[in-house]
Amino acid sequence: MQHSRLTSLALVAGAGVLAIGLATPATAAPTHQPPEGYYQDAVGKTGPELEAALHGIISEQDTLSYDQVWDGLKVTDEDPANNANVLLFYSARSQSKDSNGGDADQWNREHVWAKSHGDFGTAPGPGTDLHHLRPTDVSVNSERGNKDFDMGGSEVQEAPGNFTDDDSYEPRDEVKGDVARMIMYMAVRYEGTDGFADLELNDQVDNGEQPFMGRSSVLLQWHEQDPVDEAEQRRNDVIFDQFQHNRNPFIDRPEWAGELWS
């Protein structure tokens, strides 16, 4: 199979509901830095102690309803070249914010950590957490389904640069690292202490309804090969400033991924 992708990856083997209306993008430039002291309890820690500290920090958040996610995504994923549109995550298509819904060629709410992996559905909490929800083309969302992430497969017709097979999905190169960091966030944020399953990375695919997402070895390589960019930093700021008031630590401190999963 011939297609463009991150070159080194060819070697891989196998808190109350927040009341919001339709928010508007912040006019001030995002800081791309957490408030001073935000990660104070995690500094200097490694392994399980680091994971526990980060969980405690990012669990302090406001929670959206599933309906409020529509409004949130219209802000977090706004097309910087056209403020009437959102950018669709897998296909990179710019599309009207108002064309959301469930029909073909509309956009809907994609759970990057598939909601069946842990059976949390659309419940406030993991089912509505903007740190892993993205706008996607309805058909592409259906094509991804609840598959784990890995390399390979056939190209997705409506999202060139994405590939899929029976048990895994490979996003386009430009968002591979974004996917990895969203999955890492979910694994640290949801530890089974708030009525939801304990979400964990593993190095498998075809995890079904188990509270696992893989493939961890591939996700870690994506994290390294597609580093944090300006758009990802801005999105982290917007979620923190306007909606949930928590952050994805693997965007702010990418080195912590190696501390937890190397």
Automatic annotation (TrEMBL):
PANTHER family per the UniProt record, alphabetical: ENDONUCLEASE-1 (PTHR33607)
Region of interest (Disordered), residue spans: 116-135, 151-170
Superkingdom assignment: Bacteria
Alphabetized UniProt keyword annotations: Hydrolase, Nuclease, Signal
Extent of the signal sequence: 1-28
Keyword Coiled coil belongs to the record: no
Record has Metal-binding as a keyword: no
SUPFAM superfamilies, per the entry: His-Me finger endonucleases
GO MF annotations in UniProt: hydrolase activity; nuclease activity
Protein name: Ribonuclease
